[in-house]
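Researcher: Here's the sequence for the chain we discussed earlier.
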Amino acid sequence: MQSDSLPPPDPLEGEERVVARMQILVCIHGQRDERCGTIGTAVYDQLKEEIKQRGLAGVRVNGVSHIGGHKYAGNVIVWPSGDWYGMVHPENVPELLSALERGEVLWKFWRGRAGLTKEEQIEMYRRATGGSVEQKEGASKNGSQGESITVTYLFSGQSKDVSVPLGKRLMDVGQENHIPTIEGQCGGNLECATCHVILDDEHYNRLQPPSEQELDMIEYAPGRCDT
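Model: Thanks. This is the structure I predict for it:
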């Protein structure tokens, strides 16, 4: 009797078919965000090469589409553990693979674990590292605790001067100071273009021309202009 199920995939040319004990997924969706297309593809290629060199027949790496958090590129998901990693670059691949081979989590690149609540993930990180999520993210969100600058926000014919620590995100500062035009719909992940910068001609002309992906992202941004 013929089975209705699909036949198993053919083995790859020149190697035996092996059931994967670990799947590594890398976002390489360059049409969605060029950071994933550039960094993600480089991480994917390096993983393939490193796995081959180590003879890890039971480890498979696959390129996947958008998984969120472009600013964390390269983004990597590992199954069956369900661990998410971010800011992984090609030079980090040997360290990541070594940790995975030992059954360990590489905490400095860890973004979280699928299937756990936010609170469970925070507790997991705290117990493993002795630190806090706030310490892990504080440098990018809170900026330097030393030098600060004055930023002037313009909105609805009004202005507001705010003291901002160097390195702190202007979106966060605007929301904390109740600037009405700062929406931040994507949470500061550089995905929605409700936050964008308009430069004067002098500074704009110092930059490289915007990419097609950048132009697509800001196409419907409110108040958009040529610069």
